[in-house]
C-alpha cells in the first residue's frame, strides 16, 4: 500500500529528456505513413501511442495494467488523438487485434 502513492506520483510526471530522445528516435525510425496500423505492445502510459497517432497512425495500444491504460487514455484525450488510438487491456498477441504495419515495444 505504501508503494501505490509513490507509483501514482511517478506516473504523473512527464518523461525525462533521455526518454523523449529515445521516443523521438523510434518514431522517426518507423517513418510512419498516414493510416499505418501500429501495435504498441505494453503501451504503459501511452507516450509512444500518442506520438504515433500525432503522425497519422491508427494505433492499438495494449497493456495488461488497466490503471496504466486509464492514464494513457487521459493523455491521448488531452493530446487530441484519442480517436486514433484503441486502448485494450490484455494479451498483446491476441489475433483479434488484427494485422499491423509496425509492432513496437518501448520501456
Descriptive tags:
alpha/beta, four-stranded parallel sheet, 107 residues, 4 helices, 4 strands, globular
Poorly predicted spans: none
Mean pLDDT value: 87
Shape: globular
Q: Order of strands across the widest beta sheet?
A: 3-2-1-4
Number of strands: 4
User: What count of helical segments does DSSP give?
Assistant: 4
> What value does the Rg take, in angstroms?
13 Å
Estimated share of beta-strand residues? 15-25%
Helix content: 40-55%
Task: Give the helices and strands as they follow along the chain.
Answer: HHEHEHEE
How would a textbook summarize the main sheet?
4 strands, parallel
The secondary-structure class comes to: alpha/beta
- End-to-end span in angstroms? 24 Å
Describe the model.
It is a single chain. By secondary structure, the chain is of the alpha/beta class. The chain is 43% helix and 18% strand. It has 4 helices and 4 strands, in the order ααβαβαββ. Strands 3-2-1-4 form a 4-stranded parallel sheet, covered by helices on one side.
Summarize this entry quickly:
The chain has 107 residues and is of the alpha/beta class. It has helices at residues 3-12, 17-30, 47-54, 66-79, and strands spanning 37-41, 58-63, 85-89, 102-104.
Amino acid at each position: 500500500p505504501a508503494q501505490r502513492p509513490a507509483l501514482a506520483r511517478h506516473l504523473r510526471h512527464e518523461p525525462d529528456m533521455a526518454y523523449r530522445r529515445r521516443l523521438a528516435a523510434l518514431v522517426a525510425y518507423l517513418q510512419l505513413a498516414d493510416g499505418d496500423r501500429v501495435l504498441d505492445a505494453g503501451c504503459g502510459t501511452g507516450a509512444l501511442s500518442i506520438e504515433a497517432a500525432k503522425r497519422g497512425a491508427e494505433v492499438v495500444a495494449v497493456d495488461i495494467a488497466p490503471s496504466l491504460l486509464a492514464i494513457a487514455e487521459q493523455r491521448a484525450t488531452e493530446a487530441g488523438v484519442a480517436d486514433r488510438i484503441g486502448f485494450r487491456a490484455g494479451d498483446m498477441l491476441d489475433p483479434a487485434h488484427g494485422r499491423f504495419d509496425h509492432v513496437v515495444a518501448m520501456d
